[in-house]
Amino acid sequence: MIIDHPILGPRDSSEFVYLGDACLIDRPDPLDRNAEKLFYEYQYLRDNIAGPMQELWYHEQGDRSWLVVTRNTVTHEISKVELAREVSRSRGRSK
Amino acid sequence: MAFSALKILKEGFTGNRGWSPHWRDPVLKKEYDIIIIGAGGHGLATAYYLARNHGITNIAVLEKGWIGSGNIGRNTTIIRSNYMLPGNQPFYELSMKLWEGLEQDFNYNAMVSQRGILNLSHSDAQHDAYARRGNAMHLTKSGAVLLDKSGVQKMCPFLDFDNARFPVKGGIWQPRGGSVRHDAVAWGYARGADSRGVDLIQNCEVTGFQIKNGVCFGVETSRGPIKAKKVGMCVAGSSGVLAGKAGMRLPIESHVLQAFVTEGLKPIIPGVITFGAGHFYVSQSDKGGLVFGGDIDGYNSYAQRGNLPVVEDVVEGGMAIMPMIGRARLLRSWGGIMDMSMDGSPFIDKTHIEGLFFNGGWCYGGFKATPASGYCYAHLLATEKPHPVSERMRLDRFKFGGQFDEKGVGAQPNLH
Ligand SMILES: Cc1cc2nc3c(=O)[nH]c(=O)nc-3n(C[C@H](O)[C@H](O)[C@H](O)COP(=O)(O)OP(=O)(O)OC[C@H]3O[C@@H](n4cnc5c(N)ncnc54)[C@H](O)[C@@H]3O)c2cc1C
Predict the structure, then answer these.
(1) Which long-range contacts (CB under 8 A, 24 or more apart) does B263-266 make?
(2) What is the pLDDT of residues B61-91, one digit of tens each?
(3) H or E stretch at A20
(4) A35 touching B, CB under 8 A?
(5) B7 inside domain
(6) Is residue B4 part of a domain?
(7) DSSP of B131-155, one letter per residue?
(8) How far is A25 from chain B (nearest CA, A)?
(9) Distance CA A8, CA B132 (A)
(10) Which of residues B291, B324, B341 is at a domain's end?
């Protein structure tokens, strides 16, 4: 698989480390009343999508950026690559 | 139709005209006592033990493809009971005992071959860890022999003992480990279940569940709705998709694992050899092919095929520990979809929906578990109580710190 890095251009996926579903960006609030339940679900439960899925890849052998890659888990086709920083900003998370 | 040496001899002399199909092609009924979803090894074994141990035979096993089309027909056929943790080892030892009596039990030649499994060690620390594992194995009387370098040399003189990065220091040997003909396991259980009255329904995909007020009373399928008092999911790599249809999210990700086989060679590999440090393991099939594999590709996948970097990684591991493998030509490679759980351990449990049960999370190690998984799942489905050796395999264990992570690598499927 080739990941088209938004800054570095096309890179082999073996340069990356895979973390999983990009829902991991949405870390629960530890002060929430239901924090225990929310963290259990965040840490352990997955949608495990068959089809297009947003996922987190870390460019360990490169510029060490985190990317959100939209990839079809049935065909391995990659349709979109974004910087995770920008995705989480657009979700109102990071400053 | 029972198999015996006499019958084979007689058929051999009379043109093999006396054999009949191994199972029926039954008419689908509108209602069953129990529906099992997925006719892989585990689903078929469950049906078999429900009939054999619990006398329940009004069962349908629903399979979206054909029998043996999933991981049961794609794995590298290794069996062993060399685990360590209390939640695992007694279960895998039960499985090993069932393997040892399986062929007599279901009257089918599954080619159970206990030629042993050797895990290599490369440092004092690893050797100590193997001593500890061996002691844990002795607690369940599973048998384990700690080997030093010369012990391994006697067994496998062809390894690269002086490898610069991973010199071979010794290993742990389980003589009762080995391999089994994977397809024959599916066929043997299928035939055994069918002959006791279980309906095996192929080309019948489950597309949804009939659930009302927290109670499951049937399934929707590509061949119409079917009612059942109890429904057991048993679909390995498809667990996430199927459970999603019941509104459940699981502690499971689906990943692809690849395997490889070379042309047939003369006998050379004594049993199963695992080179964990280099992500490589190998055995030799009865036809002579070297059957080998390594790690999962490491990203979510339902594609049943992997990518080239892992092919390279596995082959490099093989070349490092066993340089002679470079002379063998690769015949085939393939992939299967693994139900990778968060702690690397499986689930055999009820769900929060009454009448709906779950079996899955087998990662890359569910073949060896086939007999015990069927045995324990049948126990759970019949009695609604977990079998003692599988009682820790709970679906909700991460809620209360009940995970058992055999390798101690953490809560991420691609680390296991
Ligand atoms: C390359 C590879 C090597 C492996 N090596 C080993 C090994 O050496 N030792 C070991 O112990 N394990 C090994 N495994 C793991 C082992 O094969 C699996 O853990 C085990 O086979 C899973 O259980 P099963 O046989 O029931 O799965 P499967 O055979 O996959 O059965 C699941 C069935 O469910 C069906 N299904 C799915 N969705 C539906 C639906 N909606 N409706 C109806 N049916 C459905 C599928 O078609 C499939 O037939 C390996 C796996 C792979 C891929």
Answers:
(1) B263/B288, B263/B289, B263/B328, B263/B329, B263/B331, B264/B288, B264/B289, B265/B289, B265/B290, B265/B328
(2) 999 999 999 999 999 999 999 999 999 999 9
(3) strand A17-21
(4) no
(5) no
(6) no
(7) HHHHHHHHHTT---EEEEHHHHHHH
(8) 15
(9) 47
(10) B341
Query: What is the ipTM for the molecules in this complex?
Result: 0.95
Same domain, B241 and B283: no
Look at B307 and A44 and tell me if their CB atoms are within 8 Å: no
Based on the fold, state whether residues B271 and B337 are members of the same structural domain: yes
In chain A, where the domains are located: 2-90
The three-class DSSP label of residue B330 is strand
Q: Give the mean model confidence (pLDDT) for residues B79-107.
A: 97
Is the separation of the CB atoms in B292 and B314 below 8 Å?
yes
For residue B216, being part of any structural domain is answered with yes
Q: Looking at CA atoms only, how far is residue A20 from chain B in angstroms?
A: 7
Residue of A nearest to B243 (CA): A47
Cα(B351)–Cα(B248) distance, integer angstroms: 9
Residue with tokens 């895998």, as numbered in its chain: B92
B306 lies in the same domain as B295: yes
Fold of A2-90: Folate-binding fold (3.30.2270)
Rounded CA-CA distance B413/B399 in Å is 17
| Mutate which of B36, B48, B71 for ligand 1 pocket (most atoms within 8 A of beta carbon) | B71
Domain count, chain B: 2
Boundary of a domain, candidates B303, B326, B341: B341
pTM for the model:
0.96
pLDDT at A94 over 90: no
B175 and B114 in contact (C-beta within 8 Å)? yes
Residues B223, B289 share a domain: no
